[in-house]
Amino acid sequence: xxxxxxxxxxxxSLIISLIHFVVSPYRFVSYxxxxxxGEIAEKDIIAPFDFYVxxxxxxxxxxxxxxxxxxxxxxxxxxxxxxxxxxxLDFIIQxxxxxxxxxxxxxxxxxxxxxxxxxxENVVFLxxxxxxxxxxxxxxxxxxxxxxxxxxxxxxxxxKIKIAKINKITEYELKRLYSLEEAKNKLISKLTSNKxxxxxxxMADIILIxxxxxxxxxxxxxxxxxxxxxxxxxxxxxKNEKIVSKNQKITSIELLKLYSLIKAQKEQQAAKNNxxxxxxxxxxxxxxxxxFILFYYVLSLFFQKEFSSYPRLIVIxxxxxxxxxxxxxxxxxxxxxxLIIPFSFSVLLVALIFNPHIGILxxxxxxxxxxxxxxxxxxxxxxLSLATLGGIIALKKMKKQQEFYPLSLYLxxxxxxxxxxxxxxxxxxxxxxxxxxLWGIISCVTSVVGLILLTPFVERKLNMxxxxxxxxxxxxxxxxxxxxxxxxxxxxxxxxxxxxxxESAAEAVGANxxxxxxGSYYHDIGKIETPQFFIENNPESSELxxxxxxxxxxxxxxxxxxxxxxxxxxxxxxxxxxEIIQQHHGTGQIRYFYNKALETNLNIDEEQFxxxxxxxxxxxxxxxxxxxxxxxxTKSLEExxxxxxxxxxxxxxxxxxxxxxxxETPITLKELETIKTFMLPIIMGVYRKRLEYPEK
Length: 696
Prior knowledge:
By secondary structure, the chain is mainly alpha-helical. Helices cover 63% and strands 5% of the residues. It has 4 domains: 29-55 and 231-268; 75-214, no CATH class; 276-454, Arp2/3 complex 21 kDa subunit ARPC3 (Orthogonal Bundle), CATH 1.10.1760; 469-687, Hypothetical protein af1432 (Orthogonal Bundle), CATH 1.10.3210. The strands form 4 sheets. A two-stranded antiparallel sheet has the order 1-8. The longest helix has 33 residues, at 430-462.
């Protein structure tokens, strides 16, 4: 283990222990009385101190709502309605002033168009300027007086009414206010002329309105005060008072007392001092160090070494920290059921980025840390952990990056099965079961949503060859493949055939067949830089090489490896694909130009005629190397019999073994035989000549 990896493990363990110190469940006394309604108590429970007995939450809510329902509505005198009434009066009068020379019928029709129904007699009466001004002045004065006192609603059923004025509530008897009819009568009570009475009565029917309306803000404030005035407690238990007697059946009152005792204990007294809490958090630190170190060595021993690399350890560390933070957020801050914790998110992220086997191992580690921050409560985390196994199984069925529905389906299905069986075992009520089901669904959905959002970012940052990225690279619309097909069509066609050979062989020996195909497609992309020097792209390439020294040609030929690596990095290809590009020729000899150098008695440096390597270290790189040589050799044959192609396969692999090119590859002789068996029918199918039909 390198120093940087050790410091990463140390830092992650330290952060976890600090979080534990801050939110430690041992900070407060926490007694649990695991008693249910109707059970028989096995021992006496005595009150350790005085405390109040709080009402059950549902009882308190019911009493508060009942108190709020008894609150009479609070009213207010609406200034807006008074203003609208005056505006309507002014608008009616304007019809006469603006239509001075018009006849009464025209004025009445205009009023009707605007929603004011005034009889023709009253229109004629109001056409006179002096009478109209007198009526207007009288109405303005009386309207204001009536509206200031207030007109209450006709459907008001109480004898008194509460009215808020300047945030002060005053109770009035209805006789001090006006009903709508009383207001109209009051308006004409001082008049003597019948024509004035008729005109003003008709205008009052249009303009007068109930301007005492409910004040929602003050009403809600009074209801809230009524709720707050409801007592929270139903009594007090004295110190040393017996709460529950041995062999006594537990009633709802005893349960309330026990819940109130637990609440009082949490509020009153710290359980441990800072020194004890530091000691506990130090234990968490040691446990974290042990788990991470063991996990690192398991990755190193049983999985590919790249899985224990520094960037991937960062993903592991961050995944654990995310689980811990989500657990603390749900349990300590939101204080909602722990079944809502997005437990599956971190596990599925690791399984998707690395592989399902590592995901299963990480699932167990995640269970330990989540349970630790739930005060070692294992039931809900274990339920979520078992459901997560269904999600890991679904990863095998994901064909594209967007196809997360199998993952969601399996995750929800497994959770449903697990929570149902646990509920049956624990004899849970149907309502509790449905709540647990809802919480788990929320957990699964948030986990998958987080996975969809974060996985592409992590994959790109780590430059990983995940299934999703490899599938994207196989798309023929990929810019690099498009460029290759246009600039180097021969190399492009060669790479496609190598891809078919490599994928079939890799799948047969249990290697990553997607990586083998992608590596085949891109193994010769360096030829894009100098396509004219390669015979599959330029039949006259030999003429170009004839003008060059043999060592110059060799250097140019092997340069396609470095060019390929450079292009791969430019286009952000995954690291394993880059390694295949580097390794697919190993340290093999560029034999044609080496022989040419010998024939021309050229003074040579032999290293110039060997590829720089390294030798294949990935099983997929070795398979691509074999497929590359077999395809190149086969297409130059004149005879395409099965025996001839078998000889090509045998000779290729034997030569690679003798040259030591497969020495660093984790591949067995048996697997090499399997590779030959699966490549043979494909290469036969590609190069078998068509039957020649006689011409007519």
